[in-house]
UniProtKB/TrEMBL annotation:
Keywords: Chromosome, Methyltransferase, Nucleus, S-adenosyl-L-methionine, Transferase. This is Histone-lysine N-methyltransferase ASHH1. Residues 86-203 form the SET domain. Residues 33-84 form the AWS domain. One of its GO terms (cellular component) is chromosome.
Amino acid sequence: MEEERMEPPPPPPYIHIETNDFLHRRHKRQKEEDIAVCECQYNLLDPDSACGDRCLNVLTSTECTPGYCLCGVYCKNQRFQKSQYAATRLVKTEGRGWGLLADENIMAGQFVMEYCGEVISWKEAKRRSQAYENQGLTDAYIIYLNADESIDATKKGSLARFINHSCQPNCETRKWNVLGEVRVGIFAKQDIPIGTELSYDYNFEWFGGAMVRCLCGAGSCSGFLGAKSRGFQEATYLWEDDDDRFSVENVPLYDSADDEPTSIPKDILIKDEPNTQDGNNNTIQNTGIPIIASSSEFTPMNVEPSIASSNEFTPMNVEPLNVSSNELTPMTIEPLNAIPMGVDFTQNGSIEYGAQCAEDALQNSTRGVANLQNQSAPRDNNHTELVAVKRRPTLRGGKAKRGMRKQLNVVGICDRLASEVAREEILYCEEMKNEAAAEIDSLYDEIRPAIEEHERDSQDSVATSLAEKWIEASCCKYKADFDLYASIIKNLASTPLRSKEDAAPTEQNGLMYLENGP
Ligand SMILES: C[S@@+](CC[C@H](N)C(=O)[O-])C[C@H]1O[C@@H](n2cnc3c(N)ncnc32)[C@H](O)[C@@H]1O
């Protein structure tokens, strides 16, 4: 007698959508001048002529705009718009909740489906992520869309929300420009036989959530979900003791025999499937479960021999300025601030000269540069006031707020110098320093969005050309600082001084004034 199979409880309800729901802004309307028109012309004898791999729009991950493509109805480059999804089915997995199987043979490069959900701001994503965690939700569905926005498929989403993570995935996410909006698609990285579980690497897309031990079973498994994502690095949480889903004992042992692609024989699937793909905004209620495989018989992941993932992020040292400008180099950039070389103020406002002071300053300056080169280097915020990887306080209007520090009263110093030439030299150096500082400030406005984008979405890097400009401007600023301080020291040491009474500086704007001159 056949043993009765226990039906797993259905997935928690969610609203099924097949286009993104914009919560914090309107859907962009594509302007006519922004429409990219390809040069394809449909040729009956060559189906690929209608916006296949050679189409200029396809090559730039842009979908053709209906009415503007000469191939008309034959255009094959409107897959997001037409929801041309691969056939898939839901399955209950062992230890990883629900997952999605290929329900047809999927070809390498094929568009599998769009990751749809609610488009929310990055701030809201952070808030929601925390709220979900507080509510005890262990499954996280928020992914990055771009520098400022995320897609949350927790309450509303497409079937892509069920695709689990693997450290050796058979799919990947790709961003496409569709009618002026960026949309995230799941694409097959390789041929995927029917019945194989679909997976992609969450590392670069996942916003994070409760820290979850990865059960993908791959030989090169990184141990945790999104282990390389920023969400993971920022995480401070631990999983519940009694949540055996995340316990070490339940991590499946890797056996290379499991590397063979597995598929679920159709006859073990319970055939009672509500159609979750037909149309938008269908609430999937607990009543209808898509085709479900018994968890005990299901060997889900199609694990491949261990090869380093090509999109693995490796922080790089910043090379000298002769790197080709069109190369993209992931890096952390820290704006550099004035570091007095050999001159400093003591608490009572007097100037101190001396080798130790100069050496400290030099060390701090070198440390600032070292931080540019090595992301993991400890940060010394005393001397690197604007640290790109941290959110900084801003003034109204978005301008960076400079840290409160004692300033060199150049005018006061010049007042004490008897020589006009010496005064002019110092004032000239100060002007150079101010120009270099202004250059850094204006460059910071340019580089900040790029840094933030890089920060939030490791796939996007700060362009090397921009990084080069930043490094160059930082070096100029260092040099200008150095020249100014060197000039002050030289002239103070070698030029006659005026008496304090003649020069007595007054206090202005809370600036420290030279009181204890020789
Ligand atoms: C986008 S959801 C995927 C669908 C989910 N399994 C479900 O039942 O709805 C991501 C969540 O699935 C689980 N998950 C995905 N991949 C996993 C893996 N390789 N190991 C363990 N849990 C995984 C984690 O709880 C994660 O937060």
